[in-house]
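Researcher: Here's my situation. A collaborator sent me these components and asked whether they could plausibly form a single complex. I don't have experimental data yet, so a predicted model of the whole assembly would be a useful starting point for our discussion.
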Amino acid sequence: MASQLCLPVSPRLSSVKPLKPHFGNIQVGICVAIQRSGGRIHLVVVTEVKTQNAWVTVEWVEKGVKKGKKIDLEAIFLLNPALASAEHPTPARALPSLSLAPSSAIGNQRTATRWSARIPQKNETPSGDSPDREKHRRLQLEIRAQRALAVNTGNPNYEIQSMIEECRRHLDCSQLSGPKPLEDHRICVCVRKRPLNQRETTMKDLDVITIPSDKVVMVHESKQKVDLTPYLENQTFCFDHAFDDTASNELVYQFTAQPLVESIFHKGMATCFAYGQTGSGKTHTIGGAFSGRDQDCSKGIYAMVAQDVFLLLKTSACKKLDLKVYGTFFEIYGGKVYDLLNWKKTLQVLEDGSQQIQVVGLQEQEKSKYSEANGERSDLK
Ligand SMILES: Nc1ncnc2c1ncn2[C@@H]1O[C@H](COP(=O)(O)OP(=O)(O)OP(=O)(O)O)[C@@H](O)[C@H]1O
Protein backbone atom coordinates (compact mmCIF):
# COMPACT_ATOMS: atom_id res chain seq x y z
CA MET A 1 0.00 0.00 0.00
CA ALA A 2 1.44 3.38 -0.90
CA SER A 3 0.30 6.75 0.39
CA GLN A 4 1.11 10.16 -0.99
CA LEU A 5 2.10 13.08 1.18
CA CYS A 6 2.19 16.53 -0.36
CA LEU A 7 3.95 19.38 1.39
CA PRO A 8 4.31 22.92 0.17
CA VAL A 9 7.83 24.27 0.28
CA SER A 10 9.13 27.78 0.61
CA PRO A 11 10.35 29.84 -2.33
CA ARG A 12 13.97 29.17 -1.69
CA LEU A 13 13.53 25.42 -1.66
CA SER A 14 12.47 24.77 -5.18
CA SER A 15 15.64 23.92 -7.09
CA VAL A 16 16.58 20.25 -7.08
CA LYS A 17 20.25 19.40 -7.31
CA PRO A 18 21.38 15.83 -7.92
CA LEU A 19 23.84 14.66 -5.32
CA LYS A 20 26.90 12.51 -5.32
CA PRO A 21 26.03 8.83 -4.96
CA HIS A 22 27.23 8.42 -1.37
CA PHE A 23 24.57 10.87 -0.25
CA GLY A 24 21.97 8.35 -1.23
CA ASN A 25 18.71 9.95 -2.34
CA ILE A 26 19.14 13.08 -0.27
CA GLN A 27 18.79 16.22 -2.29
CA VAL A 28 17.73 19.82 -1.81
CA GLY A 29 13.98 20.20 -1.64
CA ILE A 30 12.95 16.79 -0.35
CA CYS A 31 11.12 16.21 2.93
CA VAL A 32 12.79 14.15 5.62
CA ALA A 33 11.89 13.22 9.17
CA ILE A 34 14.12 14.58 11.93
CA GLN A 35 14.11 14.06 15.67
CA ARG A 36 14.28 17.14 17.92
CA SER A 37 16.21 17.24 21.17
CA GLY A 38 12.93 16.75 23.07
CA GLY A 39 12.31 13.53 21.14
CA ARG A 40 9.60 14.90 18.81
CA ILE A 41 9.85 13.63 15.25
CA HIS A 42 8.54 15.84 12.44
CA LEU A 43 9.00 16.52 8.77
CA VAL A 44 11.35 19.20 7.45
CA VAL A 45 12.61 20.28 4.05
CA VAL A 46 16.27 19.86 3.02
CA THR A 47 17.61 23.25 1.93
CA GLU A 48 21.34 22.59 1.64
CA VAL A 49 23.56 19.54 1.28
CA LYS A 50 27.22 19.86 2.31
CA THR A 51 29.05 17.08 0.56
CA GLN A 52 32.42 17.93 2.16
CA ASN A 53 31.17 17.92 5.78
CA ALA A 54 28.51 15.19 5.53
CA TRP A 55 25.70 17.30 6.91
CA VAL A 56 22.56 18.88 5.54
CA THR A 57 20.62 22.01 6.45
CA VAL A 58 16.89 21.62 6.94
CA GLU A 59 14.07 24.12 7.46
CA TRP A 60 10.53 24.04 8.84
CA VAL A 61 7.88 26.45 10.11
CA GLU A 62 7.06 26.51 13.81
CA LYS A 63 4.65 28.89 15.54
CA GLY A 64 4.60 30.89 12.34
CA VAL A 65 8.38 31.29 12.32
CA LYS A 66 10.72 29.63 9.87
CA LYS A 67 13.40 27.62 11.63
CA GLY A 68 16.49 25.86 10.38
CA LYS A 69 19.09 23.43 11.62
CA LYS A 70 22.19 21.59 10.47
CA ILE A 71 21.88 17.84 10.80
CA ASP A 72 24.44 15.11 10.49
CA LEU A 73 23.88 12.73 7.58
CA GLU A 74 23.95 9.72 9.88
CA ALA A 75 21.04 11.14 11.89
CA ILE A 76 19.03 11.64 8.69
CA PHE A 77 19.68 8.08 7.53
CA LEU A 78 18.77 6.76 10.96
CA LEU A 79 15.27 8.17 10.65
CA ASN A 80 14.98 7.88 6.88
CA PRO A 81 16.77 4.65 5.96
CA ALA A 82 15.19 4.40 2.55
CA LEU A 83 17.21 7.46 1.57
CA ALA A 84 20.50 5.68 2.20
CA SER A 85 22.29 4.28 -0.82
CA ALA A 86 24.29 1.01 -1.01
CA GLU A 87 27.49 2.97 -0.29
CA HIS A 88 25.80 4.35 2.82
CA PRO A 89 24.41 1.32 4.63
CA THR A 90 21.27 1.77 6.71
CA PRO A 91 22.12 2.00 10.40
CA ALA A 92 21.05 -0.96 12.54
CA ARG A 93 18.36 0.98 14.49
CA ALA A 94 16.72 2.51 11.48
CA LEU A 95 13.11 3.68 11.63
CA PRO A 96 10.79 3.08 8.70
CA SER A 97 11.06 6.11 6.54
CA LEU A 98 9.13 8.24 4.16
CA SER A 99 10.71 7.63 0.80
CA LEU A 100 10.66 11.07 -0.71
CA ALA A 101 10.95 12.35 -4.22
CA PRO A 102 9.75 15.48 -5.98
CA SER A 103 6.29 15.02 -7.40
CA SER A 104 5.22 16.15 -10.83
CA ALA A 105 3.11 18.98 -9.38
CA ILE A 106 5.80 21.65 -9.62
CA GLY A 107 4.37 25.03 -10.51
CA ASN A 108 4.65 28.47 -9.04
CA GLN A 109 7.94 28.50 -7.18
CA ARG A 110 6.73 30.25 -4.11
CA THR A 111 3.56 28.40 -3.30
CA ALA A 112 2.92 25.45 -5.50
CA THR A 113 6.07 23.36 -5.43
CA ARG A 114 5.16 20.05 -3.86
CA TRP A 115 6.95 16.94 -2.80
CA SER A 116 5.51 13.51 -2.58
CA ALA A 117 6.34 10.98 0.08
CA ARG A 118 5.82 7.26 -0.18
CA ILE A 119 5.27 5.13 2.90
CA PRO A 120 7.37 1.96 2.62
CA GLN A 121 5.66 -1.24 1.54
CA LYS A 122 5.06 -3.89 4.17
CA ASN A 123 7.90 -6.04 2.90
CA GLU A 124 10.37 -3.14 3.11
CA THR A 125 10.97 -3.58 6.86
CA PRO A 126 14.31 -2.07 7.81
CA SER A 127 16.48 -4.44 9.74
CA GLY A 128 17.06 -4.39 13.50
CA ASP A 129 13.62 -3.77 15.11
CA SER A 130 10.96 -6.16 16.37
CA PRO A 131 8.07 -6.63 13.91
CA ASP A 132 5.56 -5.17 16.40
CA ARG A 133 7.54 -2.00 16.94
CA GLU A 134 8.15 -1.78 13.25
CA LYS A 135 4.43 -2.14 12.54
CA HIS A 136 3.55 0.55 15.09
CA ARG A 137 6.04 3.00 13.62
CA ARG A 138 4.85 2.40 10.11
CA LEU A 139 1.26 2.95 11.25
CA GLN A 140 2.18 6.23 12.94
CA LEU A 141 3.94 7.49 9.83
CA GLU A 142 1.01 6.45 7.68
CA ILE A 143 -1.49 8.25 9.94
CA ARG A 144 0.68 11.36 9.90
CA ALA A 145 1.03 11.25 6.13
CA GLN A 146 -2.72 10.77 5.67
CA ARG A 147 -3.52 13.65 8.01
CA ALA A 148 -1.14 15.91 6.12
CA LEU A 149 -2.65 14.76 2.85
CA ALA A 150 -6.19 15.45 4.05
CA VAL A 151 -5.32 18.98 5.12
CA ASN A 152 -2.98 19.81 2.33
CA THR A 153 -4.47 18.55 -0.89
CA GLY A 154 -5.59 21.44 -3.01
CA ASN A 155 -5.72 23.87 -0.10
CA PRO A 156 -4.17 27.20 -1.06
CA ASN A 157 -4.32 28.24 2.60
CA TYR A 158 -2.50 25.14 3.83
CA GLU A 159 0.67 26.88 4.99
CA ILE A 160 -1.05 29.64 6.93
CA GLN A 161 -3.64 27.23 8.37
CA SER A 162 -0.78 25.04 9.63
CA MET A 163 0.76 28.08 11.31
CA ILE A 164 -2.57 28.87 13.00
CA GLU A 165 -2.88 25.27 14.20
CA GLU A 166 0.69 25.32 15.44
CA CYS A 167 -0.05 28.58 17.28
CA ARG A 168 -3.15 27.02 18.88
CA ARG A 169 -1.14 23.99 19.99
CA HIS A 170 1.29 26.27 21.79
CA LEU A 171 -1.25 28.59 23.39
CA ASP A 172 -1.16 28.50 27.15
CA CYS A 173 -4.50 26.95 27.95
CA SER A 174 -3.62 26.42 31.60
CA GLN A 175 -5.93 29.25 32.65
CA LEU A 176 -8.83 27.90 30.65
CA SER A 177 -12.02 27.44 32.58
CA GLY A 178 -15.73 27.78 32.00
CA PRO A 179 -17.13 31.29 31.95
CA LYS A 180 -17.70 32.81 35.37
CA PRO A 181 -20.89 34.68 36.25
CA LEU A 182 -21.06 38.32 35.28
CA GLU A 183 -19.64 40.86 37.61
CA ASP A 184 -21.89 43.78 38.39
CA HIS A 185 -21.24 45.78 35.21
CA ARG A 186 -23.65 48.31 33.79
CA ILE A 187 -22.57 47.29 30.31
CA CYS A 188 -21.37 43.84 29.39
CA VAL A 189 -19.91 43.05 25.96
CA CYS A 190 -19.61 39.41 24.92
CA VAL A 191 -18.33 37.84 21.72
CA ARG A 192 -19.35 34.55 20.21
CA LYS A 193 -17.41 32.74 17.49
CA ARG A 194 -19.57 30.82 15.05
CA PRO A 195 -18.22 27.66 13.39
CA LEU A 196 -17.23 27.70 9.73
CA ASN A 197 -20.29 26.79 7.67
CA GLN A 198 -20.45 24.11 4.96
CA ARG A 199 -19.56 26.52 2.17
CA GLU A 200 -16.61 27.99 4.02
CA THR A 201 -15.32 24.50 4.84
CA THR A 202 -15.66 23.40 1.21
CA MET A 203 -13.85 26.53 0.02
CA LYS A 204 -11.14 25.75 2.59
CA ASP A 205 -11.57 29.21 4.11
CA LEU A 206 -9.22 30.04 6.92
CA ASP A 207 -10.45 29.81 10.49
CA VAL A 208 -8.63 32.85 11.84
CA ILE A 209 -10.30 33.17 15.24
CA THR A 210 -9.17 31.41 18.41
CA ILE A 211 -10.77 31.74 21.83
CA PRO A 212 -7.90 30.87 24.15
CA SER A 213 -9.80 31.73 27.34
CA ASP A 214 -13.28 32.74 28.46
CA LYS A 215 -12.53 36.45 28.03
CA VAL A 216 -10.07 36.61 25.15
CA VAL A 217 -10.51 36.56 21.37
CA MET A 218 -7.42 36.08 19.24
CA VAL A 219 -7.39 37.08 15.58
CA HIS A 220 -4.68 35.52 13.42
CA GLU A 221 -3.52 37.67 10.54
CA SER A 222 -1.36 36.31 7.75
CA LYS A 223 1.60 38.58 6.96
CA GLN A 224 4.76 38.42 4.86
CA LYS A 225 8.29 39.41 5.77
CA VAL A 226 10.35 41.43 3.29
CA ASP A 227 11.90 38.17 2.05
CA LEU A 228 8.32 36.93 1.40
CA THR A 229 8.44 34.43 4.27
CA PRO A 230 4.89 34.10 5.61
CA TYR A 231 4.28 34.65 9.30
CA LEU A 232 1.32 35.15 11.63
CA GLU A 233 0.45 38.31 13.48
CA ASN A 234 -1.87 37.56 16.39
CA GLN A 235 -4.05 40.29 17.87
CA THR A 236 -5.79 39.68 21.17
CA PHE A 237 -8.92 41.42 22.39
CA CYS A 238 -10.53 41.20 25.83
CA PHE A 239 -14.27 41.07 26.48
CA ASP A 240 -16.55 40.37 29.43
CA HIS A 241 -17.08 36.93 27.93
CA ALA A 242 -15.82 35.11 24.86
CA PHE A 243 -17.61 31.99 23.63
CA ASP A 244 -15.97 29.59 21.21
CA ASP A 245 -17.68 27.78 18.35
CA THR A 246 -18.68 24.89 20.58
CA ALA A 247 -20.71 27.08 22.97
CA SER A 248 -24.45 26.43 22.99
CA ASN A 249 -27.18 29.08 23.00
CA GLU A 250 -28.02 27.97 26.55
CA LEU A 251 -24.49 28.77 27.72
CA VAL A 252 -24.51 32.14 25.96
CA TYR A 253 -27.89 32.93 27.55
CA GLN A 254 -26.71 31.91 31.00
CA PHE A 255 -23.86 34.41 30.92
CA THR A 256 -25.48 37.28 29.02
CA ALA A 257 -29.26 37.78 29.21
CA GLN A 258 -30.19 35.65 32.20
CA PRO A 259 -28.67 38.05 34.79
CA LEU A 260 -30.62 40.86 33.10
CA VAL A 261 -33.91 39.01 33.55
CA GLU A 262 -33.25 38.79 37.26
CA SER A 263 -32.39 42.50 37.40
CA ILE A 264 -35.77 43.59 35.96
CA PHE A 265 -37.49 41.92 38.90
CA HIS A 266 -35.47 44.21 41.14
CA LYS A 267 -36.82 47.38 39.47
CA GLY A 268 -34.01 47.40 36.95
CA MET A 269 -34.10 48.39 33.28
CA ALA A 270 -32.29 46.05 30.93
CA THR A 271 -31.45 45.99 27.23
CA CYS A 272 -29.88 43.12 25.34
CA PHE A 273 -28.99 43.27 21.66
CA ALA A 274 -26.96 41.31 19.15
CA TYR A 275 -24.58 43.14 16.88
CA GLY A 276 -22.46 41.76 14.08
CA GLN A 277 -21.95 41.52 10.36
CA THR A 278 -24.40 39.63 8.23
CA GLY A 279 -24.17 35.87 8.68
CA SER A 280 -22.28 36.14 11.96
CA GLY A 281 -25.01 34.39 13.99
CA LYS A 282 -27.29 37.03 15.53
CA THR A 283 -30.53 35.30 14.50
CA HIS A 284 -29.14 31.90 15.49
CA THR A 285 -28.29 33.22 18.94
CA ILE A 286 -31.32 35.37 19.66
CA GLY A 287 -34.04 33.54 17.72
CA GLY A 288 -32.82 29.93 17.76
CA ALA A 289 -31.03 27.50 15.49
CA PHE A 290 -32.25 26.84 11.97
CA SER A 291 -32.72 23.37 10.57
CA GLY A 292 -33.22 24.03 6.88
CA ARG A 293 -35.93 26.71 6.77
CA ASP A 294 -37.38 25.82 10.19
CA GLN A 295 -36.22 27.71 13.23
CA ASP A 296 -36.24 26.06 16.62
CA CYS A 297 -37.43 29.12 18.53
CA SER A 298 -37.25 27.32 21.86
CA LYS A 299 -33.43 27.35 21.56
CA GLY A 300 -33.14 31.10 21.16
CA ILE A 301 -32.44 33.74 23.77
CA TYR A 302 -35.87 35.33 23.20
CA ALA A 303 -37.59 32.13 24.31
CA MET A 304 -35.23 31.56 27.20
CA VAL A 305 -35.91 35.09 28.47
CA ALA A 306 -39.68 34.58 28.15
CA GLN A 307 -39.46 31.27 29.96
CA ASP A 308 -37.50 32.75 32.86
CA VAL A 309 -39.72 35.83 33.10
CA PHE A 310 -42.81 33.64 33.58
CA LEU A 311 -40.98 31.32 35.96
CA LEU A 312 -39.92 34.24 38.13
CA LEU A 313 -43.46 35.66 38.04
CA LYS A 314 -44.67 32.50 39.73
CA THR A 315 -42.36 32.88 42.72
CA SER A 316 -44.12 33.95 45.89
CA ALA A 317 -42.18 37.23 46.07
CA CYS A 318 -43.45 38.28 42.63
CA LYS A 319 -46.98 36.98 43.10
CA LYS A 320 -47.50 39.48 45.90
CA LEU A 321 -46.55 42.34 43.58
CA ASP A 322 -49.19 41.44 40.99
CA LEU A 323 -46.80 42.15 38.10
CA LYS A 324 -47.91 42.11 34.48
CA VAL A 325 -45.91 41.33 31.34
CA TYR A 326 -46.31 43.42 28.20
CA GLY A 327 -44.60 42.89 24.89
CA THR A 328 -43.85 45.20 21.98
CA PHE A 329 -42.10 44.16 18.82
CA PHE A 330 -40.76 46.52 16.18
CA GLU A 331 -38.26 46.43 13.38
CA ILE A 332 -35.86 49.13 12.27
CA TYR A 333 -35.15 48.66 8.59
CA GLY A 334 -33.79 51.10 6.03
CA GLY A 335 -34.06 54.01 8.45
CA LYS A 336 -37.77 53.32 9.14
CA VAL A 337 -39.52 51.76 12.12
CA TYR A 338 -42.25 49.14 11.64
CA ASP A 339 -44.65 47.83 14.31
CA LEU A 340 -44.54 44.04 14.00
CA LEU A 341 -47.56 43.57 16.27
CA ASN A 342 -49.65 45.97 14.20
CA TRP A 343 -49.35 44.87 10.58
CA LYS A 344 -45.99 46.53 10.08
CA LYS A 345 -47.40 50.01 10.58
CA THR A 346 -44.71 52.66 10.05
CA LEU A 347 -43.97 54.53 13.26
CA GLN A 348 -42.09 57.65 14.23
CA VAL A 349 -39.34 57.84 16.81
CA LEU A 350 -39.41 61.08 18.78
CA GLU A 351 -37.98 62.56 21.94
CA ASP A 352 -40.48 63.41 24.71
CA GLY A 353 -40.48 66.34 27.16
CA SER A 354 -38.07 64.55 29.51
CA GLN A 355 -35.58 63.73 26.72
CA GLN A 356 -36.68 60.11 26.54
CA ILE A 357 -36.80 58.47 23.10
CA GLN A 358 -40.28 57.13 22.33
CA VAL A 359 -41.56 55.00 19.47
CA VAL A 360 -44.84 56.81 19.04
CA GLY A 361 -47.96 54.61 18.80
CA LEU A 362 -46.09 51.31 19.30
CA GLN A 363 -48.64 48.66 20.22
CA GLU A 364 -48.20 46.90 23.58
CA GLN A 365 -49.78 43.49 24.22
CA GLU A 366 -50.21 41.89 27.60
CA LYS A 367 -49.00 38.29 27.86
CA SER A 368 -49.88 36.03 30.71
CA LYS A 369 -47.91 32.90 29.93
CA TYR A 370 -44.78 31.71 28.18
CA SER A 371 -46.54 30.07 25.22
CA GLU A 372 -48.28 33.34 24.35
CA ALA A 373 -45.06 35.29 24.45
CA ASN A 374 -43.18 32.71 22.45
CA GLY A 375 -45.98 32.03 19.95
CA GLU A 376 -46.19 35.71 19.22
CA ARG A 377 -42.73 35.67 17.70
CA SER A 378 -43.26 32.44 15.78
CA ASP A 379 -46.39 33.88 14.12
CA LEU A 380 -44.38 36.79 12.89
CA LYS A 381 -41.51 34.85 11.37
N1 LIG B 1 -23.03 29.27 16.74
C1 LIG B 1 -23.49 28.73 15.59
N2 LIG B 1 -23.49 27.40 15.42
C2 LIG B 1 -23.93 26.85 14.27
N3 LIG B 1 -24.39 27.57 13.23
C3 LIG B 1 -24.42 28.89 13.35
C4 LIG B 1 -23.97 29.55 14.52
N4 LIG B 1 -24.12 30.86 14.35
C5 LIG B 1 -24.63 31.02 13.13
N5 LIG B 1 -24.81 29.84 12.53
C6 LIG B 1 -25.34 29.63 11.17
O1 LIG B 1 -24.79 30.64 10.34
C7 LIG B 1 -25.76 31.13 9.43
C8 LIG B 1 -25.91 32.64 9.59
O2 LIG B 1 -26.37 32.92 10.90
P1 LIG B 1 -27.49 34.00 11.20
O3 LIG B 1 -28.58 33.95 10.18
O4 LIG B 1 -27.88 33.85 12.62
O5 LIG B 1 -26.65 35.32 10.98
P2 LIG B 1 -27.14 36.83 11.21
O6 LIG B 1 -26.06 37.51 11.95
O7 LIG B 1 -28.49 36.87 11.81
O8 LIG B 1 -27.17 37.34 9.71
P3 LIG B 1 -28.03 38.57 9.10
O9 LIG B 1 -27.49 39.83 9.71
O10 LIG B 1 -27.71 38.50 7.64
O11 LIG B 1 -29.47 38.30 9.42
C9 LIG B 1 -27.04 30.39 9.71
O12 LIG B 1 -27.16 29.33 8.80
C10 LIG B 1 -26.86 29.85 11.12
O13 LIG B 1 -27.58 28.65 11.31
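Model: Some features of this prediction you could bring to your collaborator: The chain has four domains: 5-153, 156-180+200-244, 248-324+368-381, 329-363. The first strand starts at residue 7 and ends at 8.
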